[in-house]
Design brief:
Distance between the termini: 39 Å
Number of strands: 6
Radius of gyration: 15 Å
Number of helices: 3
Length: 128
């Protein structure tokens, strides 16, 4: 039951980006959230996360943020996803994984993103 609630929280966060809707951020994250983006930036506290969300959405648009799977263990969830956006008129697509730590109140207190190219190739050929 608790894992289903956490999945819905993560889903609502991804949906917030698609709809450019910051209203749920304070319900999703703890006030002392630490958020590490997959390409380097790190945000401390809900105010920085809200500022980043607002600033990014002025020049970008998330077109798709699709969840592939969840893995849960104790107070930590991992989510594998596919991401597609346009930012500053450039299209970006990649796969990723987020490691998400929840508080006892079921808010996200720490989130770390990791990314991988969306297209893969087999340099030594496909084998069976």
């Amino acid at each position: 039951m608790i894992f289903l609630q956490r999945e819905k929280i993560i889903e609502s966060y991804f949906t917030a980006w698609i709809h450019k809707d910051a209203t749920a951020l304070e319900e999703i994250f703890s006030s002392d959230i630490i958020y590490s983006e997959c390409y380097g930036p790190k945000y401390r506290g809900i105010e920085q996360v809200k500022q980043w969300f607002a600033d990014w959405n002025l020049q970008g648009r998330v077109l798709e943020w699709r969840i592939k799977q969840f893995i849960h263990q104790n107070d930590t969830s991992a989510v594998e996803w596919y991401f597609h956006c346009e930012h500053e008129d450039v299209s970006h697509q990649f796969n990723g994984v987020s490691i998400v730590l929840f508080t006892a109140e079921n808010k996200i207190s720490n989130l770390k993103e990791f990314q991988s190219q969306s297209e893969h190739h087999y340099p030594y050929g496909e084998s069976e």
